[in-house]
Predict the 3D structure of the following.
Amino acid sequence: MEKVNSSEELMNTFINMSSEHSVRQFLIPGKGKFTVVLQEEDHLSISSEVTANPELKNMITGSREEYKQGKGMSTTELLKSLSPEDFA
């Protein structure tokens, strides 16, 4: 498992992902273990999945509302919340 020691290393992990290397597992000391799965961007498939699964639509709607209420965190906010001490 890859150990990520800075926000720059974390961004490089994301940048270096591809369709052939679409799953990455890494450890951020002080935060925990993470698994990231790269999925191809396909708006039509998401739309069709939401249409086929009403519960998924409810989950997405609920998630958006919670984010608007300040209960969520964007990737940018996550990266900003990390400090050098988290990687010590």
Q: What stands out?
A: The CA atoms of residues 12 and 67 lie 26 Å apart. The longest strand covers residues 23-28.
